[in-house]
Specification:
By secondary structure, the chain is mainly α. It is 76% helix and 4% strand. Helix 3 runs antiparallel to helix 4 and helix 4 crosses helix 5. The termini are far apart. The relative contact order is 0.19.
Length: 167
Amino acid sequence: MIGPKVIGLLMMMMASIASAEMKIVVLDPARAILGSDQAKVLVEAARKEMQPDQDELNELAEELQAKQKKLQTDLEILSDSEKRKIAKEIENMQADAQFASQKLQKYAQDKNQEILQSLAPAYEKVLNEIIEIDQIDLILSPTALTYANKKHDITKKVTERLNAGKD
């Protein structure tokens, strides 16, 4: 009679034999696409487009700091009504800054998605070529792994092929 330990050992041996025959790689699609030259150009264009809003947010943050500093330094000489007025201004400015920051973050996320979608066809083409040439059986996401040796990560290879394909 075969015991559970022997069955477990046999299963582990079969799994290791099967994995030895399979070509398994790791790929981070977003990193591969966003690392490409074309994506970098698009990201920089988006960054320039957002710069006025970012400058406005930075200016608002500086004004907010100045108000907070004024409130702290003049706390003893301000009347209660002046303190309340400045505190209310600070509160409103914080709300404005938070809203502007969230709006900017949402815009950046939307732009990243737009870039990923626009470059997806080229990515798919390159990936399919690599799968066929390298005879890849399984692609894993790095976020789903605890550990993977870097030699199995084809992200850089995909990015390089994306860059080569744009010429």
